[in-house]
Amino acid sequence: MSRTATIERVTGETAIKVSIDLDGSGQIQVATGIGFFDHMLILLGKHGLFNLTVEAKGDLYVDGHHTVEDTGIVLGQALAKALGDKAGIKRYGTAFVPMDEALAMVSLDISGRPFLVFDAVLPSEQVGQFDSELTEEFLRALSVHAGLTLHVRLLSGKNTHHIIEAIFKALGRALDEATRRDERIQGVMSTKGMI
């Protein structure tokens, strides 16, 4: 069964199209108009071993907020659609990723209960043209629209680029673990019979 999805969303502020293949090999094409954000999405797909295409056009003359948040919304919707009924997936994933002095932990549950805990201080307000505070906005939008309980914790770090990069890599790896199928699982990984 193919675990793929394509979602398009057009508003007065952005036009976003995301395609994802959960059983890919890390083939990525990303264009959002925000270089650092492109880099982070590429890392997310590469470390999640997803095939991922993201095309985003937004009102960058205002700032990057709408583009980043709406990309999180659409990526979350695509992830949820690709997972379907979630039968056979491991559901939980946790990853610790170092990036030089930075060490980030991401732990998640594909629970259908969106919740974000973001415990990270980002020392610089901006990396390139990317506003650092948008890291949390992206993660919140992804969590809500994919139905993830998502915990992000920075264990060490001083360089904002390194910190955000460690978070995105850890997110990719945790998603890879959680979305992976296990033939021992009958139905969904829940005593309720649904997630």
UniProtKB/TrEMBL annotation:
PANTHER family: IMIDAZOLEGLYCEROL-PHOSPHATE DEHYDRATASE (PTHR23133:SF2), IMIDAZOLEGLYCEROL-PHOSPHATE DEHYDRATASE HIS7 (PTHR23133)
A GO biological-process term: L-histidine biosynthetic process
One cellular component term from this protein's GO annotations in UniProt: cytoplasm
SUPFAM superfamilies (alphabetical): Ribosomal protein S5 domain 2-like (SSF54211)
GO MF annotation list: imidazoleglycerol-phosphate dehydratase activity
Translocase recorded as keyword: no
Gene this chain is encoded by: hisB
Keyword Cytoplasm: yes
Cellular location(s): Cytoplasm
Pfam family, one: IGPD
Source organism phylogeny: Bacteria, Bacillati, Bacillota, Negativicutes, Selenomonadales
NCBIfam families referenced in this protein's UniProt entry, alphabetically: PRK00951.1-2, PRK00951.2-1, PRK00951.2-4, PRK00951.2-5, PRK00951.2-6
Record-listed E.C. numbers: 4.2.1.19
Main location: cytoplasm
Keywords of this entry: Amino-acid biosynthesis, Cytoplasm, Histidine biosynthesis, Lyase
Family label: Belongs to the imidazoleglycerol-phosphate dehydratase family.
CDD domains (UniProt xref): IGPD
Native species: Sporomusa malonica
Database matches in Gene3D superfamilies: Imidazole glycerol phosphate dehydratase, domain 1
Catalytic activity: D-erythro-1-(imidazol-4-yl)glycerol 3-phosphate = 3-(imidazol-4-yl)-2-oxopropyl phosphate + H2O
HAMAP family, per the entry: HisB
Protein name stated in the entry: Imidazoleglycerol-phosphate dehydratase
Pathway given in the UniProt record: Amino-acid biosynthesis; L-histidine biosynthesis; L-histidine from 5-phospho-alpha-D-ribose 1-diphosphate: step 6/9
